[in-house]
Write a structure and sequence with these properties.
CATH topology of the largest domain: Fumarase C, Chain A, domain 2
Shape: elongated
Number of strands: 6
CATH class of the largest domain: Mainly Alpha
Distance between the termini: 46 Å
Order of helices and strands: HHHHHHEEHEHEHHEHHEHHHHHHH
Helix content: 55-70%
Strand order of the largest sheet: 1-2
Radius of gyration: 30 Å
Largest sheet: 2 strands, antiparallel
């Protein structure tokens, strides 16, 4: 039976059911639907709308349905219109007339708004836990490579020396911001819409604050129209997940590049790699290619809901049913991406010798050479020009700055002495950048410690 039967008569066209029914995807919210209904029933009993006995029957019946679903004794009927219909019909079937009183002072509009908020709050916590684990993995691997020198890049050109630890911790900082954004989103998600009714509240003296307290919400919505038609929290989550997936995609691109023979900075473990059906030599970083590709799906989910909401008048419109598939897909995609990258990173085999060789061949210590001259009293612009001339001189002769004889250095400027070789040593170049946030091993270790503290606090 349809919850809205009465105004219309006759059988529903199967094509209407196909487009209207949502149980195929909203059934995953059964726990939130039942938990919210229990709190609603307790409140109805508290204000005397239903009797104490009826309240107890409803609560006991709902708890029984939840237990049976979770232990596999009750299968959700996928021919029902939605999860709300299934739960209420099952409850009424089990306890009789009292079950028909559960929906008093409640609309599916505010009920579904409650369910989705509860579901998203739970999922946000799960995603945060996975993001914390990946951040911890970045810290673990970084700590093993505090002195692993590699090129830092701008425009994909070798620029200045950094360490692998510093590189990895850049992604850890991105994830920390993602975690913070998700936490803020959860706070705004936990605003109770129940009591908004279909759009204009109800004449019953509901104790909305009591329900909010029972469910762990931060407060109640202050406008019934907004309470049933707000999906800002869902858009915010999709935006946060899109930003996070963008970060994961950037890291995935690094791994794809670094796995190539042109870089060969890292080799993924066999259980996180695939091969080719025709080329026996291939070992592909498909895991990171897929994360990179799945990022577009999450972007699409955000665009889907933005587009669905962009011209909706107040209050509830059935277009808003489209929020769930986009939300569920984005959450599932982020969940999978986070869960595979952490073990992949922990088992990856990085190649410090290849990284150092790449760093040595790119003149990325040129800035440090210019700084050496500045410390000897040469104006920076003059030092910049002289160093550029030396780089060109080395390129023409197939040399690096480290290999250039001191006599050749002194042809450009008499400020050069034997200590220039210490100044342009790659590890020295990195170690001297010890200001907070810099790539020096001491600075990166401090960043790792601070990051772990933030993970613990989040």
């Amino acid at each position: 039976m349809k919850l809205w039967a009465g105004r219309t008569g006759g059988d529903v066209d199967e094509r209407l059911s196909a487009i209207n029914n949502s149980i195929g995807f909203d059934s995953r919210m059964y726990k939130q639907d039942i938990t919210g209904s229990i709190a609603h029933a307790k409140m109805l009993g508290k204000i005397g709308v239903i009797t104490e006995d009826e309240k107890n029957q409803i609560v006991e019946g709902l708890n029984g349905i939840l237990a049976d679903i979770e232990r596999g004794a009750l299968e959700i009927d996928m021919t029902c219109e939605d999860i709300h219909t299934f739960v209420e019909a099952t409850l009424t079937e089990r306890i009789g007339t009292a079950g028909k009183k559960l929906h008093t002072a409640r609309s599916r509009n505010d009920q579904v708004a409650l369910d989705i908020r509860m579901y998203l709050a739970d999922q946000i916590e799960h995603v945060i836990a996975l993001a914390k684990d990946l951040t911890a993995a970045f810290c673990e691997v970084a700590e093993q490579h505090l002195e692993t020198v590699m090129p830092g890049y701008t425009h994909l050109q070798r620029a200045q020396p950094v360490t692998l630890a510093h590189y990895l911790m850049a992604y850890a900082q991105m994830l920390l911001r993602d975690i913070e954004r998700l936490g803020d989103c959860k706070r705004r998600t936990l605003v109770l819409p129940l009591g908004s009714g279909a759009l204009a509240g109800t004449t019953y003296p509901l104790d909305r604050e009591y329900v909010a307290e029972q469910l762990g919400f931060n407060g109640i919505s202050l406008n019934s129209l907004d309470g049933v038609s707000d999906r800002d929290f869902a858009l915010e989550l999709l935006s946060d997940l899109s930003i996070m997936m963008m970060h994961l995609s950037r890291f995935s691109e690094e791994i794809c590049l670094w796995c190539s023979w042109e870089f060969k900075f890292v080799t993924l473990a066999d259980n996180f790699s695939t091969g080719s059906s025709i080329m026996p030599q291939k070992k592909n970083p498909d895991i990171t290619e897929l994360v990179r590709g799945k990022t577009g799906r999450v972007f699409g989910d955000l665009t889907t809901l933005l587009t669905a909401m962009k011209a909706l008048p107040l209050a509830y419109n059935k277009d808003m049913q489209e929020d769930k598939e986009a939300l569920f897909d984005a959450i599932d995609t982020a969940d999978l991406s986070l869960s595979v990258l952490a073990p992949m990173l922990r088992t990856a085999n990085f190649h410090p010798a290849n990284m150092k060789k790449a760093a040595a061949g790119g003149f990325i210590n040129a800035t440090d050479c210019a700084d050496y001259m500045v410390r000897k009293g040469v104006p920076f612009r003059d030092a910049y020009r002289v160093t550029g001339q030396r780089v060109k001189y080395c390129i023409d002769r197939g040399l690096t700055l480290d290999e250039l004889p001191l006599t050749d250095y002194r042809e450009f400027s008499l400020v050069f002495d034997e200590d220039v070789y210490d100044a342009i040593d790659l590890l020295t170049c990195v170690s001297q950048r010890s200001l907070p946030g810099g790539p020096a091993p001491s600075a990166v270790k401090a960043t790792i410690d601070a990051t772990r503290a933030k993970i613990a606090e989040a």
